[in-house]
Amino acid sequence: MSYEGTTCPCGGKKAPNTMLCDGCMTEFKDHPAMASFTDKKNDVEIRRHAALTLLTLARGRKGKRAA
Question: Which 3 state secondary structure label does DSSP give 26?
Answer without folding.
Answer: helix
